[in-house]
Specification:
Blueprint (H helix, E strand, L loop, with lengths): L7 H32 L1 H29 L1 H21 L1 E2 L2 E2 L1 H28 L3 H29 L4 H21 L10 H7 L10 H6 L2 H31 L3 E6 L2 E5 L1 H27 L4 H19 L5 H29 L5 H7 L2 H17 L4 H44 L1
Helix pairs in contact: 1-2, 1-4, 1-5, 1-6, 2-3, 2-4, 2-13, 3-4, 3-6, 4-13, 5-10, 5-12, 9-10, 9-11, 9-14, 9-15, 10-12, 11-12, 11-15
Membrane topology: Multi-pass membrane protein
Subcellular location: Cell membrane
Pfam families: MFS_1
């Protein structure tokens, strides 16, 4: 499988996702600094909680709309909203007009439109791929995400303080390019029939259709999968939250390496920055190699091994202050992510009923929220327990995630048979 062999929508989706994530990484990591300077750290914390909740709410709403009205329509509406939001944010930070309040409101709106687009984007990938090529597509998607993180982070770090207007203007221009792709290139993949049209045609409504989020919450296999992924993602969030605070407070300035008379030293804050960069850089460099290497093994084995490797890497990162051990363990944790990420996303596509892909994909928005809450909680826990306790907790969370994945996969064959039988019934009723 090569990029040129993919469906045109998947090609556009990968490019568009890179552009959207590039804009996000140019802006979002630095908005905490922006609002803390203007409103103080306490209010900024509440703003970021509100931002997460708004993204989740609009994501849940967007999932229903993507199933009801189609993927392309929702993507066009969302990207139009993002473009206009970025344009106004740029004007609110221009040489002619400076309004932090306008920026605040538009950042919340911008995040809402991002949540609105998420289910449609994810559902479209499943619509346009087969089980055989999904691992390749999700590997590319993971690669583009980390590439945008590297590039966007460097651009944002350079321009944010002194060139805010230029930064937001560039972000709006990139968003406009993404909108053009959605307006003129992408094709619709989901053509839902209204209830009256189904009744007129004499077609029964799918069992999986019409239950909304109550139906999804009652889907035990899917909810087990959601919890498994959330716990797995929380391992990285514990590192990003707790380990950063711990390293800044515990790690003394140490020598990283010597070259002649030069001695490169690093403290805890610097080490944390190096580890984050290492994580993104190795994903960019090794994603393609890892995909080709691990495809020769059984998916289930690679998934479980990836979870265990990730768990061990982050457990050591939670307790060690040795620079080179930290670097090695970040490499190990990143390798685990490369192993499990494409496979767990591919399994997700197999357990979602086709008639409600948007709704189900919207519920996956719970994954980062739960993971972020666990990550934030690790900071509070780290204030009262030792780093060894956090490390052991990391191992326990990783094992719990592996156990939940195992239980989900045991239910998969029976679930696939039921969905295939339902789809055959629908096709028979429509002929």
């Amino acid at each position: 499988m090569k990029y040129r062999d993919l469906h045109i929508n998947v090609k556009v989706r990968l490019v568009e996702a890179f552009l959207v994530n590039l804009v996000g990484n140019m802006i979002y990591p630095f908005m905490a600094i922006y609002f803390a300077d203007r409103y103080g750290p306490a209010i900024t914390g509440f703003l970021f909680v509100a931002n997460i909740l708004i993204g989740l709410f609009f994501g849940l709403y967007g999932g229903v709309l993507a199933d009801r009205f189609g993927r392309r329509k929702m993507l066009r509406i969302a990207e139009t909203g993002r473009f206009l939001s970025l344009l106004i944010i740029g004007l609110a930070n221009s040489p002619w007009f400076d309004s932090p309040l306008t920026t605040l409101v538009l950042v919340l709106i911008l995040n809402g439109f991002g949540g609105l687009a998420f289910p449609a984007m994810q559902a479209m990938i499943v619509d346009c791929t087969t089980p055989e090529d999904r691992k390749f597509v999700y590997s590319l998607d993971y690669w583009t995400l980390n590439t945008s993180l590297l590039i966007g982070g460097m651009v944002g770090a350079f321009f944010f303080r002194s060139y805010l207007f230029e930064l937001f203007s560039a972000a709006a221009l990139i968003s406009f390019g993404s909108l053009c792709l959605l307006l003129f290139v992408i094709r619709e993949t989901h053509f839902p029939k209204s209830k009256s049209a189904q009744e007129k045609a004499g077609e029964p409504a799918p069992k999986s259709q019409g239950g909304g989020y109550g139906m999804v919450l009652r889907d035990r296999t899917f909810m087990l999968y959601i919890l498994a992924v959330a716990l797995l993602l929380s391992l990285e969030q514990i590192f990003f939250n707790y380990a950063g605070v711990r390293l800044s407070g515990e790690m003394t300035t140490q020598s990283l390496f010597s070259w002649g008379d030069q001695d490169a030293k690093v403290d805890g804050v610097g080490m944390f920055g190096i580890l984050r960069t290492e994580n993104a850089l190795f994903v960019v460099l090794l994603a393609g190699v890892a995909t080709r290497w691990f495809k020769r093994f059984r998916d289930t084995g690679v998934l479980m091994a990836g979870i265990l490797v990730t768990m061990i890497g982050f457990a050591v990162l939670a307790v060690s202050n040795s620079p080179w051990l930290l670097l090695v363990c970040m490499l190990i944790a990143t390798l685990g992510e490369l192993m499990h990420t494409p496979i767990r996303q591919s399994y997700l596509a197999e357990i979602i009923p086709p008639a409600n892909r948007g709704t189900y994909m919207a519920m996956t928005g719970l994954n980062p929220v739960i993971a972020q809450l666990i990550g934030a909680g690790s900071i509070t826990a780290g204030a009262v327990v030792s780093s060894w306790v956090i490390s052991i907790a990391t191992l326990v969370i990783g094992l719990a995630s592996a156990g939940l994945f195992g239980k989900t996969l045991l239910n998969l064959p029976k679930r696939k048979q039921a969905m295939e039988a339902e789809e055959a019934l629908q096709q028979g009723a429509s002929t």
